[in-house]
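Need the bound structure for magnesium ion, inputs here:
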Amino acid sequence: MSRTKKLGVIFDLDGVIVDTAKYHFIAWQQLAQSQGWTFTAADNEQLKGVSRVRSLELILSWNKANISSELFERLLKEKNERYLSLIRDMDESEQLPDVLRVIEQFKAMGCKIALGSASKNARPILNKVALTPYFDAVVDGTNVSKAKPDPEVFLQGAEALGISPEACVVFEDAAAGIEAAHAAGMMAIGIGQPTHLGHADAVFPNFTVIDDALLKQLINGQ
Ligand code: B16
Ligand code: MG
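Answer from helper R.:
Posting the output first, comments after.
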């Protein structure tokens, strides 16, 4: 793990700041059912951090289904409409536990904060959970052309903050996101289970177990 002092903190959105995976799951499952395809909770795990287009490609391949490009586009739109209706009433009560404490503590330590998400819905979701004012930069699925594990999203985040990659730390819930952070030359902290995130520099089940002393250690590269 790099001992460089960390000046920038980049958060993934889905699974780190808010648990949207359950809504993505319902939306994909409804869509799959409408087409006579199967889609399980285990399948949904494999879509964490994966773009919308790639997610549909994977569901098609698991079901050995071939569809026209017109239907592909229509299903992408339909999935997003289902997802948006599921998150319509989301509010700040859906911030994952202690996210705000951690962000405020990083700010108090002088760090800059960025979002690095694959989602094209990241900005409205940040607004819904009342966290937009805390972010110095937002990079999301509308800005990047290469999906995680490519480092593009995090490199753009560091650039937007004006901080070198080795002075950034990333919080991620997806294996591909940890790979992306490492490919960007950043420290990667997994939020979730070591079984999925064993290649991270450290893994915590959630933010409630990361106290302020531990946050200081992470920032000081210890
Ligand atoms: P959307 P993250 C990712 O966000 C989700 O983990 C993934 O499940 C989803 O398919 C992807 O965003 C695209 O989301 O359909 O809203 O553009 O974890 O990188 O914040
Ligand atoms: Mg995520």
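Comments: The chain is about 45% helix and 10% strand. The beta strands are 8-11, 112-116, 137-139, 168-172, 187-191, 202-204.
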